[in-house]
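Lecture 7 notes: from sequence to structure.

We start with a single chain of 71 residues. Read the sequence below before looking at the structure.
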Amino acid sequence: MTWQRTTALIIVSTIVGLVIYDILAYRFGGDESTISKTLLGTSLTQKGFAIAFAFCFGVLFGHLFLPQTQI
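Now the structure, written as tokens:
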């Protein structure tokens, strides 16, 4: 198995794991326990968190999807 394939497997596994966790959190903890409600609640009470979180996601997605030259 190559490192590229391992990285892809880890990315897919993480996404699937978070989706499964969110379903279980909703099922056993209710709507307030989901990832989206937790992030929303935190961003409403901690204004700096919302700004930092949005900035970090912007940097991450810019890094991932803007054209990159091959070295």
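The mean pLDDT is 92. Keep this in mind for problem set 3.
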